[in-house]
Amino acid sequence: MKTYFWLVLLFFGSACSQKSTPEVATMVNTDLKRSVRVYTTADSTQLRLTPTETLTFTPFGQPFENQACVFLDPKHQFQTFLGIGGALTDASAETFAKLPAAKQTELLQAYFDAENGIGYTIGRTNINSCDFSSDMYTYVKEGDFALQSFNIGHDERYKIPFIQKAMAASKGKMNLFVSPWSPPAWMKDNNNMLQGGKLKPEAFQSWANYYVKFIQAYEKAGVPVWGLSVQNEPMAKQTWESCIYTAEDERDFVKNFLGPTLKQNDLSQKKLIAWDHNRDLLYQRVSTYLSDPEAAKYIWGIGFHWYEIWNGGRQYENVKRVHESFPDKNLLLTEACNYPFAWETFDEWHWGEQYGENMIHDFNNGAVAWTDWNILLDETGGPNHVNNFCFAPVHAKTKEGSLHYMNSYYYIGHFSKFIKPGAKRIISSSNRAQLLTTAFLNPDGSIAVVVMNQTKEKIAYRMYLGNKAVELSSLPHSISTLIL
């Protein structure tokens, strides 16, 4: 019998009265002593996703006003969790290739093994070059609108073998989506893959065909593609590969070219993700796309990044606004990283806390998935052909063949290791601003509760389920996952 049923039956009575069979009653009696396992990562300790205690629910009455609490309510369920992962870029693949075989195995297990690692189930990679490539490249010769010269030979040296190994390490559970940073220069009005520019009208169909060619070539090479985004950061003129689309441009490209082209090539089952940029313009962009039924029918989901912090702060509420207005579309963070890179700041604790805070808010506001940026970089924060270096959760010192884990790796793991694809988010309500929390009901009936403390104080609290609770302490600058 699933854990969920005994919890709901025991504490919420009539909500599951239809399940009151002799079998259920027996399981409730048996499970009254069921434990709560706690895993913790904390600053100024050796705790890193470490089992720290096992607790048992006991009866408690109404909590007092000065009692810090987290309240669970599995009766109320929300979005279905898809997964968590990271990007397998050229930079990650090239750095991986420089590692000794034992360290390659360690990295793959650390990310993709559900038991001995943190269980990533999503991957992202770039179509054509991006900033985290060692060189600038495309897959066709200049002026080849018919794409007769299309060839992914560039990717066969590092990126494709790396993705294949990651998929094998995940035991086939990794869903890969692909994103372009820029069309070939000759398809753009600035004749440059860098510095923004826009897609020329005469290249619209050829560029739509390009996605199809890429997906077909990757799948022929043994790399299944689950989805794609229209354009990485379509409102950013960058010193690296970039291409500008207004909301109307992107809507019309999807409606008139990309959507129909995917359908004509039997690829309409691929998950098409629009926007793929920051939370700040999220609502304006989405409302433009989805107010047009002919565009909306092709769009599976909306991707967003976290870099709006440079415009004044995190705008988590925009995720909620989109979820409220368009509940049939999937929301997922498609890129995040900490920067600028400086090795001397590698161990600063706030790097991980940024992940924990963002993930809790995004999931509570309706996100179904969360995808980090590069899963591996070298000791310079690269390689990167435009000197745009940043952090990854794991870095390699390639000259000595060693791996170094940031605290961000463990913060992400508090979600990805314990929340399983197919889980349903449930209510987890904190009565203290200092304790951030989210919770999911897993397909096997277990409940994963994440509690994060960004303060320098140790906080004693109770976690309630109905009229029963467990008593815990949240360490300073810590994150914990509680498994019921």
Q: Reading side by side through the largest sheet, how are the strands ordered?
A: 2-1-21-18-17-16-4-19-20-3
- What count of helical segments does DSSP give? 12
Portion in helices? 25-40%
Distance between the termini: 14 Å
* CATH homologous superfamily assignment of the largest domain: Glycosidases
Total E-strand runs: 21
Domain module tally = 2
Q: Round the mean pLDDT to the nearest integer and report it.
A: 93
**Which residues form runs of ≥5 with pLDDT under 50?**
1-32
Care to describe what's here?
With 484 residues, the chain is of the alpha/beta class. It has 2 domains: 35-80 and 424-483, Immunoglobulin-like, CATH 2.60.40.1180; 83-416, Alpha-Beta Barrel (TIM Barrel), CATH 3.20.20. Helix content is 27%, strand content 26%. It is built from 12 helices and 21 strands. The chain has helices at residues 3-12, 22-31, 90-97, 101-112, 159-169, 204-220, 247-264, 282-290, 293-296, 317-325, 350-364, 407-416; strands at 35-42, 50-56, 58-59, 69-80, 83-87, 122-127, 175-180, 227-229, 271-278, 301-305, 330-335, 369-374, 377-378, 394-397, 402-405, 424-430, 435-441, 447-453, 459-465, 468-474, 478-483. Strands 2-1-21-18-17-16-4-19-20-3 form a 10-stranded mixed β-sheet. Helix 4 (101-112) packs across helix 5 and helix 8 runs parallel beside helix 10 (317-325). The two termini are 14 Å apart. The relative contact order is 0.18.
Main attributes of the structure:
484 residues; alpha/beta; Immunoglobulin-like; TIM Barrel; 2 domains; 10-stranded mixed beta sheet; 8-stranded parallel β-barrel; 12 helices; 27% helix; globular; disordered N terminus
